[in-house]
Amino acid sequence: MKALKIQKILFFAILGIATLIYIGPFLFSLSISFNADKNVFDWPIKLLPETFTLDNYKNVWNELPFEKWLFNSVLVTLVQTVTNVFFSALAGFAFARLEFKGRKLIFGLLLSSLMIPGIILLVPKFIILNEFRMINSYAGLIIPGLVGVTNIFLMKQFFETIPKDLEQAALIDGCSYFRIFWQVFLPISKPALAAVAIYTFQGSWNEFLWPVIVTYTEDMYTLPLGMASLRTELLTDWPLLMAGTILISLPTLVIFIVFQRYFVQGVASSGLKG
Amino acid sequence: MATIQIENLEKVYPGAERATIQKANLSIQDKEFVVLVGPSGCGKSTLLRMIAGLEEITSGELQIDGGRMNELSPKDRDIAMVFQNYALYPHMTVFDNMAFGLKLRKTPKQEIKHKVEHAAKILDITHLLDRRPKDMSGGQRQRVAIGRSIVRDPKVFLFDEPLSNLDAKLRVQMRAEIKKLHRQLDATIVYVTHDQIEAMTMGDRIVVLKDGIVQQFDSPMNLFNNPQNKFVAGFIGSPSMNFIEGKIVMQKEATFKSKDLQFAVPKDLRPCLKPYEGKNVVFGFRPEYIYDKAVEKGKRLSESMEIEVEALEPIGSETFVYFHFSGNPDHSFCFRSNSQLAYAVGDKITIGVDIDRLRFFEADTEKRIM
């Protein structure tokens, strides 16, 4: 019993330290965002602001093209989330349930593309989009992220756990394969779909590298890129930057809290670790 | 309702060494209840799924009501199927589960409602219509699955081991209900099970399958009394038939000789066994037709055989007596005795087998000789 108690205390201590390591920087950002003093990194560093202000948040909205960046981010994220959920489910269904020639080969090729680091693909992707005259456009921002292999894999794994009897019962009932997908498989795959949606939303909302490469005018920036543009070599307005960062991390936080149950279920049922 | 004609039906999976179903020929009558039975992997479910259209037919022909079905998809065959795992749509209510097939066929709403309610009444699940499958017991789910097939009013009902997920008591109850349903619906039913008791109690006729080959297609009592080969004889009946391999020796009289026992074959059976003189044969005798000679006086019994009781399994109405013949303690057999007779382990008894129930099989082909 005593050993168990010590084990429990140790367990919680480790968890506590880990939480602090993860949440510490966020809390510090939060503190900076309310600081009226611009020189937040002057020694000694103060963890709590001496003069508390909401001006930084007001300035984010008033002084920066925040609305435009927000619109860009929302558009890119929404379109990519919807298309990722739809296409990865559709492709996952095909790989999990349909018999067609070359199924294993195509799936193998898709999976093997995961082995190539994303960085390597940046240049070819840029060149292709340049040929299509899509640089610095919404198409250029959105199209490369319409569907992801990881999501297809996740959906395929999930669909494979659905008993074959269910599909056959639907066939006998008179369903076409698309109807089986649409009316039988999709409604019972909410946890996996939610997981895909959350992954995509998070990835797309926080994406930084691709927008940096594909856009060059301020009006095409997404929020992370806009925030990063505030940091210059000579002067960085840290409280303003942190206020913006806190604002843009809110949607992910809310979505994660609301859909946490699905998120965990989805990860568990797909056998993947998030 | 409909007839089903199966002619030289074969199923070979790509890369498989042998056919899963080999040249099956069956003629199923209108309104008949046919059970496909056999051990695991015998191909019974495959055959059912070929009828359903869920497995492609490699060669041969399948006809329902005179029309060729080979190329038709499941939805165009006018069949309904009940699955072992119920296969209910988990996100739909019972009503929607039952109505789904009708909606897809664009049946008018009022008619759907009427049909679903009628089927629910027959199956006594009216009170469950608003529930979802996860809120129901196994038995209730199976009723819904049956209901889903009834509402479509198909030509043929296919059941794929529908009772194997239910507990023993519920299984017996559902067995009777499905039989009753068959009478009510006047339907042609093909039913798959691995349980020979289920097959015997439910089927008008039974198809016994082994390794993809139809062994016998006959009525339950004919399968029991006149099995065409050793496999059917051993598979049908519980406890199963006892077998002893030995030789027929023709001296003054025909004698069956084996390590376990030796006895003179009754006179009227000798002509049949004459061609097998000196050859290996298998002697088969059912536990039901073995009698204690000290008690049974009226029956025509074979020569006396000395046995020693090894173990007893009383089941109330009767007792299964496990024994060996005096000549060979390594080989066990079984007979069903009246539970009033108090035997004890180690008892030595003299038994005889009902002469009319003696069965002999060829040792190599396993075909029945008589």
How would you summarize what this structure contains?
The complex is a heterodimer of chains A (274) and B (370). Chain A contains 13 helices and no strands.
How much helicity do the residues of chain B have? 10-25%
Tell me the CATH superfamily of chain A: MetI-like
Supply the CATH superfamily name of the largest domain in chain B: P-loop containing nucleotide triphosphate hydrolases
Strand content of chain A: under 5%
The global form of chain A is globular
Q: What's the CATH C level of the largest domain in chain B?
A: Alpha Beta
Order of helices and strands of chain A: HHHHHHHHHHHHH
**CATH architecture verdict of chain A:** Orthogonal Bundle
How does the SSE layout of this entry go?
The complex is a heterodimer of chains A (274) and B (370).
Chain A: H1 2-33, H2 55-63, H3 66-97, H4 103-112, H5 118-131, H6 138-142, H7 149-160, H8 164-173, H9 177-185, H10 190-206, H11 209-214, H12 223-228, H13 238-270
Helix pairs in contact in A: 1-13, 2-13, 3-7, 3-10, 7-10, 8-9, 10-13
Chain B: E1 4-11, E2 21-28, E3 33-37, H1 44-52, E4 59-64, E5 67-68, E6 79-82, H2 94-104, H3 109-123, H4 138-151, E7 156-160, H5 168-185, E8 188-193, H6 196-202, E9 205-210, E10 213-218, H7 220-225, H8 230-235, E11 242-250, E12 254-257, E13 262-264, H9 270-273, E14 280-285, E15 290-292, E16 305-314, E17 318-325, E18 333-338, E19 348-353, E20 359-362
Parallel strand pairs in B: 3-8, 3-9, 6-7, 7-8
Antiparallel strand pairs in B: 1-2, 1-4, 4-5, 9-10, 11-12, 11-14, 12-13, 14-20, 15-19, 16-17, 16-19, 17-18
Helix pairs in contact in B: 2-3, 2-4, 3-4
